[in-house]
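# step 3/5: fold
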Amino acid sequence: MEDLRSFLEELESRGELRRVRAPVSVELEIAEILRRVARGGPALLFENIEGFEGWRLTGNLFSKMERVKLALGVEKLEEAGERFTRLTKGPPPLTLGEKVRTLREAASFGRYLPKMSKALWKDNEWDEPDLNKVPAIRTWPKDAGRFFTFPIVITRDPETGIYHFGVYRMQIMGKDVTGMHWHIHKRGAAYYDKYGEEMPVAVAVGVDPAVAFAAVAPVPEGIDSYLFAGVMAGRSIGVAKGESGLLIPSSAELVMEGTVPPGETRIEGPFGDHMGYYTPPAPFPVFRVRRIYTREDPIFHATVVGYPWLEDAVLGKAVERTFLPFVRMLMPEVVDLNLPEYGLFHGLAIVSIRKRYPGHAKQVAMGLLGLGQFSLTKMIVVVDHDVNVHDLNQVMYAVASTVDPQRDVQIVENAVADELDHASVAPRMGGKMVVDATRKLREEIGRDWPEPVAPDPEVARRVDERWSELGI
């Protein structure tokens, strides 16, 4: 499944896709329908979009974890992350044999590099770019207009040549201009800051689902998104070179090429975002569209965000599972991780560890807060290895039975905060909270931790043997 269409065909063959042939509007109606089927419902393919003849629109593709696994071709999402860590871990080569091993590993990396292929998108009959002809949707009543909600924004580091994908919402502001809502902490904004002139940007909509996943994932700094997507999918990603010189997924349904001019901003928003509130209007860079390409009978891909539970809940959990092997590679003491859906992912992280020494829990928490997109996390709760982080009752028991707030709760002031966090003390700055909910060592409390209650093993064994005769 190397493009969106083959993914949709596979979903339909599995009974996971519904075709909507009744006329629907891009003004709030499509979004309302998608929200109603978001939790575990089918993927939808709208085939009759009012005012946009010749277009189809799909959404709710990733509302089940099984569909994300299908997109990446794995039984367990950890497999995709482990595929990458296997290629990257290990000491530097010292002997000839080790050098041969390293060359072999480099060759295995090569099979995941992007491959040049013929573009399926082409010039359309439009005389000039006209975004009014594209069925981007309006998702909430007070949104500033229609937005691209699942655009794959493709940028390239001008110093290293490394490519990055990002999903940054794009408000249509005219026939050939959109907002570019990239946050200061994101790599797209970092590349933009390096340019002293107009920055070439390509946007792809309706892509290979592995590329879509790579675009929402917090790909580590220095890793090319095309390579990352290839490793996640277990195959190369087909690309074609655009007029801008950028490599673009060759099977994309819609492609826009243009530039983000230096210093030019417009007021963007409001927009109902994943926090469940409207992001207030604010100045952001703009994307000036120079060319638009489409496939025959193009399919537009959209998603809706807002108060959970919506499709991004599954994508966030998929990122959690996929990136657990990366976290373990850097911190081997980590056992498991939970970013709860209703914690909004950046709001709360629960991590279990094999605790070995005093202060170990705080060390792990501080390490996570310095790790890529984990730096935006507001609260981290650390529990022992035998606590199931996905059972919130077990987590609450650990907090209630091991935590003294004066000793075990640490507040970090004036740290980085998510751009969309309206609760922070200042824009992009706020506090962090670390809760050490592990059982304490003598060095941490000045006395031995009490012995936990447990049944007598011999009595438990006898009751097990007699259980059937007890008639309970």
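# step 4/5: annotate
The first strand starts at residue 17 and ends at 20.
# step 5/5: archive (pending)
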